[in-house]
Amino acid sequence: MDRAAFDALFDMTDRTVIVTGGTRGIGLALAEGFVLAGARVVIASRKADACEEAARHLRGLGGHAVGVAAHTGNLDDLDLVVERTVEEFGGIDVVVNNAANALAQPLGEMTPEALAKSYEVNLHGPVFLAQKALPHLKESRHAAVLNMVSVGAFNFAPTMAIYGSVKAALMSFTRSMAAGYVADGIRVNAIAPGPVDTDMMRHNPQQAIDGMVGGTLMKRLATPDELVGAALLLCSDAGSYITGTVVIVDGGGTPR
C-alpha cells in the first residue's frame, strides 16, 4: 500500500450520506464525522427546525449539508428524503439508518399500538429507506448501508422486549440485505451500541442507567463521538471487504 491508497481509506470526499435521526445524539455525531471526512450529508428527522439547525452546524464545520423534515415511519416521507437528496446532491452513496424510538412496555402489559409504532420506525423505516434508495446506491462505486441496531438485540430484558426484538429483526435484515445487494456492489452492515450518553439514555431512571453501566467492562457510558470510528470504517473504503456483519461498540458488556 502506498501513501495515496492509505490516505484514501477513510476519505468520504464527494460522497453523499443520508443520516436519519441526525439532529442529536449518535446521529449528529455520525453526521459530523462524515462531514469532516469530506462527505455531503443529508439530515432527516421529524422536526424541520432541528433539521435546519443541525444542517447549519454541519455547514459551519466546512461541509455541505441539508436537512429534510421526515418521519421515518412514513413511507411517503422516505420518498421525500430520497428525492431531496438526489435533487440536492445528484445521487446517494451511503444510507445510515439511525432514527429510532425506544418504546418500553413490560411483558404482559404491551399494547398492539406500541408494538406497531416501534416496528414502524425501527424496522419498516430502515428497510424501506434502503429499498427506496436502491436505484441510486446501485449507481455508486462506494455504496454502503449502515443500520444502527443495539446490544439489546443480543441481550434479554423483560421491560425492553419491544426494543430488543425490533433491533434483532433489523440485525437479521442487515444480513439478508448484505446477501441480496452484494451483486450490486452495495455493502450492508450494522453497529450495535451499548449504553451511550444521549437524550434517549437520560430518559431512563438513574437506577436503570447505573445497571447498564455496571454491565460494561469499562464501567461508563460511551460518548456519541465514540461511535464515529466504527461508522467510518463500515461506510468508507477502509471497510471494503466487510459486509453482513455487526460491530458491537459497548465497552465490553455483551457476551460474545
UniProtKB/TrEMBL annotation:
Protein name per the record: SDR family oxidoreductase
PANTHER family for the chain: DEHYDROGENASE/REDUCTASE (SDR FAMILY) MEMBER 4, DEHYDROGENASE_REDUCTASE 4
Bilayer-spanning residue ranges: none
InterPro entries in the cross-refs: KR_dom, NAD(P)-bd_dom_sf, SDR_fam
SMART domains noted in UniProt: PKS_KR
Domain spans labelled Ketoreductase: 15-194
Naturally occurring in which organism (per UniProt): Mycolicibacterium hodleri
CDD domains: SDR_c (cd05233)
Keyword tags: Oxidoreductase
